[in-house]
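Residues determine shape. Next comes a sample protein:
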Amino acid sequence: MNSLLEEWGCIYLGKKQQNKAISLPDDLIKKIPGSQLILLQDNKIPGQINLAKVEFYLYQKMFHHIERGRLFCNHSVSYCSLDYDLIPEETVENAYEIAKQFGYSKIPVYCDERLDHALMELEAAWKQTNVNIENGNNTDIKIEVDKEGKSTWKLTYDAETTEDTDFFNLLPKQDIADIMKLMGDKLIIWPLLTHIKDRYKKHKFPDPFVLLACVLSEAFGFSIKKMAEMSNVSYDHLRAINESFIHIENLHKVNNAFSNYIHGLPVSRVWDLQDNTIIADADAQKFETNRHTIQSRFSSKYFGSYKGISVYTLLANHIPVNSKVIGPNEHESHHLYDILYGNETNIPIHKVTGDTHSINQANFVALDSIDIAFIPHIKHIQEAATQLYSAHEPAHYHGLIKPMEKINISLIKSEKRGIIRILLSLLLQENTQAVIIRKLSSHKRYSRLRAALWEYNKIFKSIHVLNLINDMQLRKVIKTARNRTESYHQLQRAIRKIYSGVFKGKKIIDNAISNQATRLVANAIIAYNAMFLEEVYQCLVLKFGEKIAKFILMNISPVAWQHFLFTGRYHFKHKLIEVDVSKLIEAAEEKWKKSQGQQEKI
């Protein structure tokens, strides 16, 4: 292949010699199959090769070898070899030491003990699901028999529990700048915003108000020049501070501080959807851009005739734990592992859900290897139930739900070394999940390894679908987590709408900074609300006990912003904020009395 490219490229490519006929050396002719050599011959001169046809033949062969991973450039990110992206083959020998160092003991035994345990889980899920249907214990499944005697089924759902945001109407309206300053002082975040340079620093300890003005200008989407016109801070001062202190690492640190504060409040345990378990949700939101970057793409569904980006966010218990900007053309599922593994907060994620865009043929395995259960929302469960797999032959199972095929266990075990190598590469972050999984999916050179990984993934997906059929509470938990993300998206959209919801960065890093600034403002709003909910919670615990206090506040969402003023003229100065929490406590007690009255009527 290389000789063909070198010799033919010198002959024709780059030279305008279309339709010219030549004779090729015998050694090159021998490399071309006879059926294809006939097609390359010139129509006018028998026995001669047409150079125009050779060029397109070269393109076809190049595409063929790129697709199979045989033609690559290791200086490229997207087109280097997959072997170049993975850890060296010999590193797999140290799998036990690496797994012990990172605390993920499953990886070295992933195709041995872990595989056996997963198959046992699958067998137990099959047995429990069909037995509960036969015994009538699963009252949420409705079976119908048509005229031909064929059984069909569907699942019923309880009414959705809506989360209350009107609770915060009792709070006085406050300027967002004052709230940001209040929460920044409380969490002492200003020292976290360090100078981008180690030395020759003109502003070592900038005024928090100026830092705040720069953050708000980035979050709302208008320039620092506009902020200077709308505030009491000069443009030159804003520009100097913005260039020196508002960078991506600083904003990550401050966001993590806010997230840790909210998670550290006892009231945050009220929002746990399962006891001692934190369930996160990952989803993307589309935003238009007014400047072209390598990430911005056309999408008529979301942006009409304009370009835009996707903001991918990980939310846990109303807290935006992590966020990143991706292209709308990128599949969200390719970034799920990275956004979870990149969680630098003190919030441990035990389970994660998402919509259908979070599902691919490797995420169940990838997340299980780092001890995170993947429980995505399945839109059409009946359809998914027809594509389930089992540890034994399908004839072994009797009941309403039946497997489609048996898991190919021997295939998985035969690719043990390759699977462990991929999991270790993800763990050591040799490259991102988006790159590794995309290449593994597209390169036919790794078809057997890919098939083994996909086969393993079928085990966990089948377990999850069976659990969804068998457990209504699990379905409700997933739906609640998804609804919380939608509420956060509304808050994020409200913040961005100050500048028509458009990202205006000239570079990828500019949009990333703007996204982190928006998350910081949202974090401050949620932290402010959670601070007052914590006071209410502690008063209710003293008066009614912990169980009743949790019941009263469990459906009150801290993602509320009707009591904040985002627009207007920003006057950055010290201002004393006083809020009467007794009104919130009275409202919570009134809510408890109403719920008691409704129960007595029932």
User: Anything to note?
Assistant: The first strand starts at residue 21 and ends at 22. The two ends are 79 Å apart (CA to CA). The mean pLDDT is 86. The chain has 24 helices and 15 strands.
